[in-house]
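Weekly puzzle thread! Below is a chain. First person to post its structure in token form gets bragging rights.
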Amino acid sequence: MKVFVLVSLLASLALASVDINSANTKELSSLKGIGVKKAAAIIAYREKHCFKSVDELVNVKGISVKIMEKNRNDLAANGCKH
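Winning reply:
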């Protein structure tokens, strides 16, 4: 039973989404096509605007629809902190 719980926990961590409303530079730059510069742009954008959905990520300069779609399954836009 302990092994099953451990495997389940590890699987859920591996499948965890990156919340674009709260992720730090390191977490954001782990995404496909997102480096430190684009991660900084995402953080700067969200300081002024809350992401209500992952689709709004394309509003950030340098983030294309293609980049957003490559990462869609790994993204979340949970509650705003403002």
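Puzzle host: Confirmed. Bonus trivia for everyone else. The longest strand covers residues 18-19.
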